[in-house]
Specification:
Blueprint: E1 2-6, H1 18-26, E2 29-32, H2 35-44, E3 50-53, H3 59-71, E4 76-78, H4 92-100, E5 104-108, H5 113-121, E6 128-133, H6 140-147, E7 153-158, H7 163-173, E8 179-183, E9 191-195, H8 197-205, E10 213-217
Parallel strand pairs: 1-4, 1-5, 2-3, 2-4, 6-7
Antiparallel strand pairs: 7-10, 8-9, 8-10
Helix pairs in contact: 3-4, 7-8
Length: about 220
């Protein structure tokens, strides 16, 4: 009875480990966010497996069904649409329930947008705080004020729909903090901008932007 937590590519399909491919081939079924996205990955590597969707909308209905399936003697892999499962993605409840039921949980590490962006940021990486997506409404301004006092490097995720809003908020709360904004990491149109929030806002505003973003913010009072 094993549950493998398998990291998958964040863009470039070559960024998958040999161990991840081996695991996906050997398990009895795969738990994923979106069967279409995972199906594309599996077809690329000629892997055929039963897929069970588990996401924020159906987790409560499917959780125990999946646990029972594993307890009956099946091995399973948990994947997200991209990157490492449970990092701003579903899966924590499943893993917690698996541990309660004495199912062995095994990490198959690999791609992560957080680590990829940090590694090329040029900002301090010995200590950082990952906040994922900020609250969309309630608590957002309070969180930004707290982060303005943070003395560690900050990592945020943001969508294409709110990136300009976030940059405006950083201009207000952290105008003198050096930031790095990475878009479409590992993909064909990967871009990174480095500078102060106002400088990056002018670059982003001039372009028709698509994709997902990772934002790295320098610690308070840090100077290169």
């Amino acid at each position: 009875m094993k549950l493998f937590v398998v990291s998958t590519p964040i863009g470039n399909l070559k960024d998958i480990t040999l161990r991840a491919l081996e695991t996906l081939k050997e398990v009895d079924f795969i738990i994923c966010e979106d069967t279409r996205v995972t199906g594309n990955l599996l077809r690329h590597y000629e892997i055929s497996k039963e897929l069970i969707s588990l996401n924020a909308f159906n987790e409560s209905q499917k959780l125990h069904q999946i646990i029972e399936k594993i307890l009956s003697g099946n091995s399973a892999a948990l994947v997200s649409d991209s990157g490492t499962p449970t990092i701003s993605d579903p899966g924590n409840r499943l893993i917690s329930e698996a541990i309660k039921n004495k199912i062995e949980v095994i990490a198959i590490p690999g791609a992560s947008a957080v680590i990829a962006a940090l590694s090329i940021s040029g900002l301090p990486t010995d200590s950082f705080v990952f906040e994922g997506f900020l609250p969309q409404k309630k608590g957002r301004q309070k969180k930004l004020k707290q982060l303005a006092e943070e003395e560690r490097t900050i990592v945020l995720y943001e969508s294409v729909y709110r990136i300009e809003k976030l940059l405006d908020e950083l201009i207000e709360h952290m105008p003198e903090r050096l930031i790095v904004v990475c878009r479409e990491l590992t993909k064909k149109f990967e871009e990174c901008w480095r500078g102060f929030p106002a400088e990056i806002k002018s670059n982003v505003s001039e372009k028709i932007i698509k994709g997902e973003f990772v934002i790295i913010i320098a610690p308070k009072n840090w100077r290169q």
